[in-house]
Specification:
- This protein is α/β, with parallel strands linked by helices.
- The protein has 2 domains: 68 residues, no CATH class; 112 residues, no CATH class.
- It is 37% helix and 20% strand.
- It has 6 helices and 7 strands, in the order ααααβββαββββα.
- Strands 2-1-3-4-5-6-7 form a 7-stranded mixed sheet, with no helix packed on it.
- A hairpin with a 2-residue loop joins β4 and β5.
- α1 packs across α2.
- The termini are far apart.
């Protein structure tokens, strides 16, 4: 099989997981892997001629082939994307490998330089399970920055602060909105607001009485 034919066959299956290569793609995968090491210039030549999928997903054959050919990666830098990991990231990177289950995430790249984890989720993702949150905490996470990938670009979905169990979510206008806080923090915040309203009412009553006596 020629390098060009192997590349064409893998491109047709660009959405397949790179960690579970189907048997009928095994020889093509091995040939491209060999070319990546021993003949990268020739491989890059054919990659530029090949049709590039518009929607590349982390952890797939498409990311393995074309992920490093982009100029921009959305709201993160080239060194932090799982589409083209060059081992320059200071953040631990996790990707969602399956849609269902108590634990749907796998470690894609490990780093001990930061307690902020970059989490890349599928479009169907809604929220973390308690098992997943405990897993991230046990691995040293303090903050989770959750990204969604659309058309080969990464966009920040929300930030999950594990230190205070508070989730900050972004709406379509880019404004951060608190979506859930711990019961303790909620009670404390409610007390502060009630106390503030009470003080304002007292001040308004005093002003009203002062104006009334001055008339």
């Amino acid at each position: 099989m020629s390098l060009e034919n192997a590349l064409n066959l893998l491109t047709q299956h660009h959405s397949s997981s790179i960690s579970k290569i189907p048997p009928h793609l095994s020889s093509s995968y091995k040939l491209i892997k060999y070319a990546k090491i021993y003949n990268p210039r020739l491989l890059n030549h054919f990659l530029k001629l090949e049709y590039k999928p518009t929607d590349i997903i982390p952890g797939t054959i498409g990311a393995w082939l074309f992920g490093c050919m982009q100029c921009k990666y959305g709201e993160i830098g080239r060194g932090d994307t799982p589409l083209c990991l060059n081992k320059n990231s200071i953040y631990p990177i996790w990707i969602q490998s399956k849609a269902k289950g108590d634990v749907r995430f796998v470690l894609f790249y490990n780093s001990i330089l930061s307690q902020t984890f970059h989490i890349f989720v599928k479009p169907s993702f809604s929220q973390f399970t308690s098992t997943e949150l405990n897993m991230f905490i046990e691995n040293g996470a303090k903050i989770l920055r959750v990204y969604i990938t659309r058309y080969s670009k990464h966009y920040l979905l929300y930030i999950h602060d594990l230190r205070h169990m508070k989730t900050v979510k972004r709406n379509l206008f880019g404004i951060s909105i608190p979506t859930s806080i711990s019961r303790k923090n909620y009670a404390h915040s409610t007390y502060e607001y009630t106390y503030l309203i009470f003080i304002i009412l007292i001040v308004l009553i005093i002003i009203f009485l002062m104006r009334r006596t001055s008339v």
